[in-house]
Amino acid sequence: MFSKTHELMIGSIFALRTWCKDRLPIENSLIAYDLILVLAINNYAKNNISIKELFASVPHSYTAVRGHYLRFVNDGWVEHYLDESDKRIKYVRPTAKLIKTMNDYAAAAQKILMKNID
Question: Rounded CA gap, 1 and 20, in Å?
């Protein structure tokens, strides 16, 4: 049997998952969710990440990652830009739209998960 604390935490995790489903462009895909998290982590750390590095940073097939990535680009969630010193390298970064959503996500996660931790 789950402890009472676990029951509250599982409920909170489910609430956070519902928030993600309703607001993040993940389409119930862990591939899309992983890509968004990697982009957010690199954005907050002020790291440049190339498209090649992004694709290699998640444990999913290139084809599946590429499909989600192209949808993110087409829907205005991310943009790519060239390296100034080596034009062969394309970097990717979240747009203001994704940055705002990720800031909202972090605030929601803190509120939802912390309310049941004493």
Answer: 28
Residue 6 amino acid letter: H
- Give the number of other Cβ atoms within 10 Å of residue 107's Cβ: 10
Going residue by residue through the chain (118 aa), what tens digit of pLDDT does each one get? Answer: 556 667 777 888 888 888 988 899 898 899 999 999 999 999 888 889 999 999 999 999 999 999 999 999 999 999 999 888 888 889 999 999 999 999 999 999 888 877 755 5
> What distance in Å separates the CA atoms of residue 73 and residue 75, rounded to the nearest whole number?
6
Q: How far apart are CA 38 and CA 2, in angstroms?
A: 32
| One-letter amino acid for residue 58 of the chain | V
Residue 81: beta bridge partners? 91
Strand order in the sheet with 90-94: 49-50, 90-94, 78-82
The model carries a pTM of: 0.83
First to last CA, the chain: 21
CB atoms within 10 A of CB 74: 9
